[in-house]
Amino acid sequence: LELGQDGPFYRAPIDGGRWVVDTKAMDTIAEAGVPVLRFEFLPVSDFLDDKGLLTSNITRPDGFDNEENVHRIASGMLADHRMESIVVRERRGRRDVMGGRHRLLAAGKAGRSQALAIVIGDVPDCIAEQLSLRLNLRHGSQVSADAVLNRICDFIARGLTTKEAAAKDYGFPLSSITDRQRLRAVREHAKTHNVDVRCPDTHLRHIAKLKGGQQLAVLRAFHGRAAVGTVEQVRDLVAEVQSSTDPAAVVDSYVRKLNGRSGRALTHSSRPSKLNKNLRGTITSLRTITTDEFQDHERADFLGMVDEARAGLLKLKARLDDD
């Protein structure tokens, strides 16, 4: 430990780099109840491949690195600024970077051979992932809110935390987490039925108000479309679908107006071959379902979708017969 003009620091024994213990990281680790084994200078080469990329890491929430931030840190290292320590997990003979990914990449670019690490013990992946997210948030203006909210929803879905605990741990309002769960539920609903949803979140928030077959009817009308109307138009469509006894007809009329023509409305896919394939896939899936698998509310929801699908197919058949 040495004392410089800008405060105390640890000097790397090989390359002479100046490092300090990341106190914010220490607080986060303590809050998570994870024990610290030791502080140690570790070889940067243990974590980087011959291209300067990390080989062992718990992934960042947004899945990518901010090159501008890496270059900024590397410049600081070359100017002999003090660098904060990284956080490393030791588990089963390998080391995973929990926090400080950009600092490690910068060390490689700056030609540094060692990095000061806070070494924690063998904690399970489920704890490591949550700790890594919290460490990234402590440092991370580079981490997008969308990426963090998606990761939080993953944790909740896996039973690793609750909405209330996540709001406290990660600093997001409970309403933001609930909103993201609703949006993800709509996208999952679409994915389950092979519907390609490209609507922005502002539109999906209104579609999320619909349930079961009504929601699916709107999603299918928007299948593969980048332009589905304004937010206000989608809001009005949802309100009309909610109050209608024939949601399919309402959606059909909306798509016709959206297309600006009086011809036949677009179906789930504009190509008959793809539509036929989707129908065959749906029929195959239905044949594998037993009635014992349905709860009472699911049974009612499913029967409603069947009635809507039957009505839609009859209308399509009538239009094809007319042609």
What does this structure look like?
- The chain has 323 residues and is of the alpha/beta class.
- The chain is 53% helix and 12% strand.
- It contains 13 helices and 8 strands.
- The chain has helices at 23-31, 67-78, 101-109, 125-139, 145-157, 163-170, 174-192, 201-207, 212-221, 231-243, 247-259, 272-287, 296-322; strands at residues 2-4, 7-11, 18-20, 36-43, 83-84, 86-91, 94-99, 114-120.
- Strands 1-2-3-5 form a 4-stranded mixed β-sheet.
- Helix 2 (67-78) packs across helix 3.
- The longest helix is centred in the last third of the chain and has 27 residues, at 296-322.
- The chain is elongated and about 85 Å long.
- Residues 261-271 have low confidence and may be disordered.
Structure characteristics:
323 residues, alpha/beta, four-stranded mixed beta sheet, 13 helices, 53% helix, elongated
Condensed summary:
The chain has 323 residues and is of the alpha/beta class. The protein has helices at 23-31, 67-78, 101-109, 125-139, 145-157, 163-170, 174-192, 201-207, 212-221, 231-243, 247-259, 272-287, 296-322; strands at 2-4, 7-11, 18-20, 36-43, 83-84, 86-91, 94-99, 114-120.
